[in-house]
Write a structure and sequence with these properties.
Elements: E1 2-4, E2 7-9, E3 21-24, H1 29-41, E4 47-49, H2 60-65, E5 73-75, E6 81-83, H3 85-95, H4 105-134, H5 147-169
Parallel strand pairs: 3-4
Antiparallel strand pairs: 1-2, 3-5, 5-6
Helix pairs in contact: 1-3, 4-5
Length: 171
């Protein structure tokens, strides 16, 4: 890769000089996580917005990129597609190791991964369930909406935030 003015630009002559492209959705939390990571790394990429509110992620064009129809997706210059926010972040951590955002050394890397997984499983998944199953704007994206499930997940998210607050108070 060659870096120019804070941009990671990759060209592959075998592929018509195509650049890396991030398929992004301003409304969704996983692409936001990826954008924050890239911002902390100082990496700017060409992006294409996919509007999930109009179901663009369900179109045949986007389904050809990501059959799971989820956001975000990173298309590399050789045509390989990487999906899932953390997989995309790990790719860029390896491409541009500085600053290290996943830790350095075995213990630090393991602790970052532990807290990352704890937050995903115990907080994000529960908050997402509450939002997707209660918010009227999500009724087309979460079929069927099950309000009772959302209400059951709400205290789990609160419990984890309390645990996280206690942990952060120690630091």
């Amino acid at each position: 890769p060659r870096r120019q003015r804070g941009r990671l630009r990759r060209r592959d002559k075998r592929n018509g000089g195509r650049l890396v492209k991030l398929y992004d959705s301003k409304m969704a939390p996983n692409p936001r996580r990826t954008r924050i990571f890239l911002g902390e790394k100082g990496i700017a990429l060409p992006t294409e917005q996919v509007d999930i509110t109009t179901m663009q992620h369900k179109t045949p064009e986007y389904t050809a990129i990501n059959p799971l129809q989820r956001m975000p997706s990173l298309v590399l210059d050789d045509g390989v597609v990487i999906t899932e926010s953390i997989a995309i972040c790990r790719y860029f951590e390896a491409v541009q190791p500085q600053p290290p955002l996943f830790g350095t050394g075995a213990k630090e890397i393991a602790l970052v991964e532990m807290w990352n997984r704890r937050c995903e499983i115990n907080f994000f998944a529960n908050v997402a369930a509450v939002f997707r199953h209660l918010h009227p704007a999500m009724k087309e994206l979460e079929v069927p909406q099950v309000p009772a499930y959302a209400e059951a997940m709400r205290p789990r998210a609160t419990w984890f935030l309390e645990l996280l607050d206690k942990e952060l108070a120690k630091r």
